[in-house]
């Protein structure tokens, strides 16, 4: 696994050992960022961060900052190690439950422009009903949300869908902030 584009293109990233983390394949990350287009200056939130590959890719491509959230200690250590390899001081890492983190972020008035949501495939289909309402208060007016899941058990948010793409056993669903759709 490596950074695909931007200032850190070609840098190898580490992933936590074991089968608890499923890093997004390089070709899917490349397609994702091709669809997103420029991310310069955006505030990025990488939920269920795993290795942090999605958020680090955004940083490499010019995102202003990235916040990484995962409950797994090995994943958090991998994100920190990968941020160190990429030389980025623009990353914040939190070991926290995503729903609790989002509640706290909303209370503190935090807003993000791009949310990358890649939960464990086996749980994704159950997360949508709770996750959508928790995301809405932390989205900037023009925010985009990308959900990665299995096409067999997709993560569905109650937010406007702007695009949907399938890459083998990976489904990417692109959403906009509720205000951005009107």
How much strand? 25-35%
Question: What count of structural domains?
Answer: 1
Can you count the helices? 5
Backbone shape: globular
If classified by CATH, what would the architecture be?
A: 3-Layer(aba) Sandwich
In CATH, the topology is named: Rossmann fold
Range of helix content: 25-40%
Radius of gyration of CA atoms, rounded to a whole number: 15 Å
| Overall residue-averaged pLDDT value | 90
What's the CATH H-level homologous superfamily?
Vaccinia Virus protein VP39
| Distance between the amino and carboxyl termini | 38 Å
Low-confidence stretches: none
Class in CATH? Alpha Beta
Strand order of the largest sheet: 3-2-1-4-5-7-6
Q: N-to-C SSE series?
A: HEHEHEHEHEEE
Quick structural overview:
By secondary structure, the chain is an alpha/beta fold.
Written overview of the protein:
It is a single chain. The chain is an alpha/beta fold. The protein has a single domain, classed as Vaccinia Virus protein VP39 (Rossmann fold), CATH 3.40.50. The protein has 5 helices and 7 strands, in the order αβαβαβαβαβββ. It has helices at 26-36, 53-60, 73-86, 98-107, 121-135, and strands at residues 43-47, 65-70, 91-95, 112-117, 139-149, 161-167, 170-176. Strands 3-2-1-4-5-7-6 form a 7-stranded mixed β-sheet, with helices on both faces. Helix 5 links the parallel strand 4 (112-117) and strand 5.
Question: Layout of SSEs?
Answer:
Elements: H1 26-36, E1 43-47, H2 53-60, E2 65-70, H3 73-86, E3 91-95, H4 98-107, E4 112-117, H5 121-135, E5 139-149, E6 161-167, E7 170-176
Parallel strand pairs: 1-2, 1-4, 2-3, 4-5
Antiparallel strand pairs: 5-7, 6-7
């Amino acid at each position: 696994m490596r950074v695909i584009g931007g200032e850190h293109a070609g840098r190898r990233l580490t992933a936590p050992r074991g089968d608890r983390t499923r890093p997004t394949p390089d070709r899917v990350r490349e397609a994702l960022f091709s669809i997103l287009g420029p991310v310069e200056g955006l505030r990025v939130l990488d939920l269920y961060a795993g290795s942090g590959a999605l958020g680090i890719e955004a940083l490499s491509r010019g995102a202003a900052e990235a916040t990484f959230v995962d409950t797994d200690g090995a994943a958090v250590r991998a994100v920190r190690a990968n941020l160190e390899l990429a030389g980025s001081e623009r990353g914040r890492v939190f070991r926290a439950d995503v729903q609790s983190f989002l509640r706290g972020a909303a209370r503190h008035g935090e807003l993000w422009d791009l949310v990358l949501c890649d939960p464990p495939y086996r749980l994704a289909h159950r997360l949508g009903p709770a996750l959508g309402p928790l995301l809405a208060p932390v989205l900037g007016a023009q925010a985009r949300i990308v959900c990665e899941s299995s096409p067999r058990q997709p993560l569905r948010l109650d937010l406007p869908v702007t695009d949907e793409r399938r890459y083998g056993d990976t489904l990417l669903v692109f959403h906009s902030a509720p205000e951005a759709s009107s």
